[in-house]
Each structure stands twice: as structure tokens, then as C-alpha cells.
Give the backbone structure.
Amino acid sequence: MKVIVAVLLATLAAAQPRGTPRSAPRDQAAPQRKAAPTDGTRSTAARRSFQRASPCPATGKATGPCPGYVIDHIIPLKRGGPHEPENMQWQTLAEAKVKDRLE
């Protein structure tokens, strides 16, 4: 009896298409969501443009690092915000940690 159950379970597992929910037919599977782009794939030109228009609050420089601050997207990219200078702001590291917990 245990052998029959094991064979049936193995057969069902092999017949189940991988990556789709069991309740949804293959043609009605949920569409794959694209991951938000990482910093490496975002436009560096947009970041540079923002930094030229809004120099670092700590150093006053329009280039280079900005100690204690990060560039933040006002409307997060994962919520449909554009990766454009108009959607960017300087944010302290402490503010960024709080915002990251909320998003």
C-alpha cells in the first residue's frame, strides 16, 4: 500500500508544471513581475543631473560622495516613480532607514 501511494505522489509531482500554482492552469498562470532595477542598471546620467542641480547638503559639492546622505526617490521606483531628477531628493541616512522600513 505504501508503495502505491509513493508511486502516485511521484506521478502527480512529475505531472505538475513547475513555477505555476496548482490551482491555476498553465495558460492562466500569474504573469511574472519584473524586479525593480538595481543601482547598476539605473541611469547614472539622471543621478548626475540631480546632483548638479542639488549639490550635496554636507559638502556643497555637485560631484563626488555626500557623507551622511543618500539620493532618495520621492515616489519609490517599485511604486511606479520615475528615475528622473524631479523625483529625487537628498535624504539623511537616518531618514532613509525609517523610510525603508515603511516601504
